[in-house]
Amino acid sequence: MEKWTLPLSIIALVLALIGIAGNLTGKVAVVDMAKVAKESPKAQLYEKQLADKYQQLTKNLAQKKGLSEAEKEKQQAAAYEEYLKTKEQLELKLEREVAASVRKIARSRRLSVVLYKEAVRWGGVDITPQVTKALR
């Protein structure tokens, strides 16, 4: 029984590698992130949320009267820090959603690699419209 263990393991490994290789098509796709950010309703929603946050922070700062210069600068720095934190959170959220959409599209189209279009001089299947559509 032990003399069959190694050959069977090797055969199983070879079959697994063939199965993995069979799932990869060698196709390369590209995603234009600038276009996704410009055309995606989800990205536009996050952009509006960020603009609203900026308006809110600006309004709050304008309502604070009678502050010393030092206190005013401190309040502005705190507001700017809050704005940057919100911006970072929204960007990360969009990035995760884009990555999930890209993964889903890559699997369904059996793509091996997906790159940012900005990094590719020529070639690759453009999946930007599918990613933009998936982010609705």
List the helices and strands and how they pair.
Elements: H1 5-23, E1 28-31, H2 33-39, H3 41-63, H4 69-108, E2 113-116, E3 125-126, H5 128-134
Parallel strand pairs: 1-2, 1-3
Helix pairs in contact: 2-3, 2-5, 3-4, 4-5
Please tell me about this protein's structure.
This protein has helices at residues 5-23, 33-39, 41-63, 69-108, 128-134, and strands at 28-31, 113-116, 125-126. It contains 5 helices and 3 strands, in the order αβαααββα. The protein is elongated. 71% of the residues lie in helices and 7% in strands. By secondary structure, it is mostly helical. α2 (33-39) runs parallel beside α5 (128-134) and α3 runs antiparallel to α4. 12% of the residues are buried. The protein has a single domain (2-134), classed as Protein Binding, DinI Protein, Chain A (2-Layer Sandwich). It has a 3-stranded parallel beta sheet.
Give the overall shape, derived from the CA principal axes: elongated
Distance between the termini: 57 Å
Integer-rounded radius of gyration:
25 Å
Low-confidence stretches: none
Q: How would you spell out the order of helices and strands?
A: HEHHHEEH
Note the main attributes of this structure.
136 residues; three-stranded parallel sheet; 5 helices; Protein Binding, DinI Protein, Chain A; single chain; mainly alpha
Provide a concise account of the structure shown:
This protein has 136 residues and is mainly alpha-helical.
